[in-house]
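Run: sequence + zinc ion -> complex structure.
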Amino acid sequence: MAQIWNLLTSVLHILHPEAFVPQDLDFYVPQSGAHEFKEALHQRGYKEKEDQPKCRFYGDTPVAKVGHLYKVGISGSINLIITCSPNPLSVIVKFHSTLVMNVITSDGVLCLYPLLTLAGQGVMTRNTRGTRSCFLKYIFHGFTLKLQFTQHQCMSTAYCHSTMGSIDNPDVLVVPFTRRGSRESTLDSFSPFHWQVGKVAEDEKAIISLSIADRCTSAEAALVPR
Ligand SMILES: [Zn+2]
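>> structure
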C-alpha cells in the first residue's frame, strides 16, 4: 500500500530553516489508511475541530476529504488530507508551484525539483485567488517564484513543462532517514509514478505579475524595522 505522510510547508522549512516557522502540519493519507491514521492521532490527544478554518488551497486536486485536528496546549494544528488516489504524490504534483513539491515519508525526504527548491526558487503552475495569496506568503519569506523554467533545453531535463517527470529519475532528491535506507527502499511504495507539471495559462500571466508586484511593495514595507 502506498503511504505517505507529507508535511507540506514543514518540508520547505527543513530545506530552508531560516526562512519561516510553519504554523501547522499537513498530512496526506490515502483513503485506505485514513481511518487508522486518524485513530493514531486521537490516541495522542488530537481532536477534530468543530469550526473549520477558511478553505485552504488544494486546487482541483483529487482530494476526498480534509480534516483539521488540534490538541490542547499545542499551538499548531494538523490538517489531514485524505487523497482519492492510493498514491498521495498525485496530489503533491498538482500543487501551485514546484517550490512546495517536497514530501516527508516514513522513510525519508523527497524533493521533486531540488535544483530550484534548494536555491529558494520555484515555478508556478496555476494562478487563482488562492494561489496568489500563497505566492505572496512565499515571496514575503524570501523565495522567488517564476512563471516558467528558464534557460532549459526543452524535453531534455525534468525542469520543463513538457517533460514527463518520474519519481525514479535521478533529478529527484531522495534523503533516506537511516543509513540502512537506500534511494530504492525510500521510493519503493511510490514507484512507478509519473507526472507533468502544470503551466500557468497565458491569460493568467498578466494578472499574476500585477498582483505580485503590487503586494511585494507592501511586503517589503512590512519588513522595515519599527
Ligand atoms: Zn521545456
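>> summary
The pocket of zinc ion is lined by residues 152, 154, 160-162 (CB under 6 Å). Residues 202-223 form the longest helix (22 residues).
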